[in-house]
TrEMBL record:
InterPro entries: SAUR_fam. Belongs to the ARG7 family. It comes from Arachis hypogaea (Peanut). This is Auxin-induced protein. The lineage of its organism: Eukaryota, Viridiplantae, Streptophyta, Embryophyta, Tracheophyta. GO terms for biological process: response to auxin.
Length: 82
């Protein structure tokens, strides 16, 4: 199963079975990830941080993950290989 990091699609286009997320501490970058990644403990830890920082109000219109981009890419690249 492949995915695009970063997404080269239009900002409004997310394929079925995928989710758009905005990642970064200051400057946010948009990524499109498989929904199945949400079951991974590393992603769930990041989502817990999101809930603490943003609650359920996401000003970017999508899910915002306030972590460094390189950390997110490391986690998703490990998920992609498994």
């Amino acid at each position: 199963m492949g995915f695009r990091l970063p997404s080269l699609q239009k900002k409004t286009s997310v394929p079925k079975g995928y989710l758009a997320v905005y990642v970064g501490e200051n400057q946010k970058k948009r990524f499109v990830i498989p929904i199945s990644y949400l079951n991974n403990p590393s992603i769930q830890d990041l989502l817990s941080q999101v809930e603490q920082e943003f609650g359920f109000d996401h000003p970017m219109g999508g899910l915002t993950i306030p972590c460094r981009e390189d950390v997110f890419l490391d986690i998703t690249s490990r998920l992609q290989r498994s």
